[in-house]
Design brief:
Layout (H helix, E strand, L loop, with lengths): L6 E11 L2 E5 L6 E4 L7 H7 L7 E6 L13 E5 L14 E6 L2 E10 L3 E5 L9 E12 L2 H6 L11
This protein binds zinc ion.
The site of zinc ion has 4 residues, from loops.
């Protein structure tokens, strides 16, 4: 089947800035999302629309269509206990913090004893990105997935 609204899509991606590879899903499981429910970058979702399993293609997204521009004054001091993803923090590492708007990725700038200065820009903000996409599978969502608005794994809803 082709990717359309309410399809559950699994895909692998490798993202580049110019020739530099920034991130790839190839080392782990493919990314799964529910198409047409705003769970994916709109530029990627548009490009995936109508594709089928095993299709490979690449998409170029300007920063404004990907993770938006960088903001220069987006540095904030965050208690270490609120940073998730590692036990010991060093500048340049990426941490996850939970905010009122959900999870966000931040980049550690400077680490103190109890707090770290963090750049709140998404690590890919301000970058023009190229995504190499490989569609792994496409299926129809179950009615339960549709009512929750997200994909369930083999074990059902995880929450
Ligand atoms: Zn659920």
């Amino acid at each position: 089947m082709q990717i359309a609204k309410d399809a559950v899509v699994e895909f692998h991606y490798t993202v580049f800035e110019g020739d530099t590879q920034l991130e790839s899903s190839k080392d782990s499981s493919p990314l799964a999302y529910l198409h047409g429910h705003e769970g994916m970058l709109p530029g990627l979702e548009n490009a995936l629309d109508g594709k089928a399993a095993d299709e490979k293609f690449s998409v170029e997204l300007e920063a404004k269509d990907a993770y938006g521009p960088r903001h220069d004054n987006a540095v904030q001091r965050i208690p270490l206990k609120h940073l998730q993803g590692a036990k010991v923090w060093k500048p340049g590492m990426t941490a996850v913090v939970h905010t009122d708007q959900g999870q966000r990725q931040v980049t550690i700038i400077k680490v103190g004893r109890f707090n770290a200065d963090c750049d709140l820009n998404h690590p890919f903000a301000g970058k023009d990105l190229t995504f190499n996409i490989e569609v792994v599978s496409v299926r129809e969502a179950t009615s339960e997935e549709l009512s929750h608005g997200h994909v369930h794994g083999a074990g059902g809803c995880g929450h």
